[in-house]
Design a protein that fits this description.
1 helix, four-stranded antiparallel β-sheet, mainly beta, globular
Amino acid sequence: MERIATYTVNAQITSTQLNDLQDVTVGLISGANNNVLSAAGCDGCEWQSTADLAPSTQVKVDATRDWRDRVLTVLYYAPSGSNTEPGGVNDTDYDYDITSLRKGYAGRGGLDAGSADPTNGNPPVVTSTPPGSWALKVDVDVYLYASTVDGSLWLYNDTAGTIKIPILSITATAPTGLRP
């Protein structure tokens, strides 16, 4: 994002400046009536892996915020070519159709079949059996989930093959307060 204004220590900020900032800022509000998602605001994340994702392995996507208890909208793609990421030698090919568009709830985070945090070889499962486990299936046997420990966001490859530098575009509501 480009800086709109630069301020110095003890600079006065006028209401006009604050209103100008609001005019150019993108925001998300919750619908006012009959809405279970009553928290205002959103977070977003653009991510492309720096390496291929081997079978039965996971990679941390983001640890800058707590992704639990949010509704996520996820665009997923795994390019077939190489070096197509911005700045790569083939970045002119960074133009693709989305493989998967998913919307889901991160709940209290993902657990494996033994109700432990997922690890390589132990993928997240989806179950309502207490304590519960939430994971979005962003593609066939590819899961996005929040850590139950710190809320960081992880991508897990439970396929039989390597995924070439996966790409995610994520938009998330603010925490809903429904599963704190």
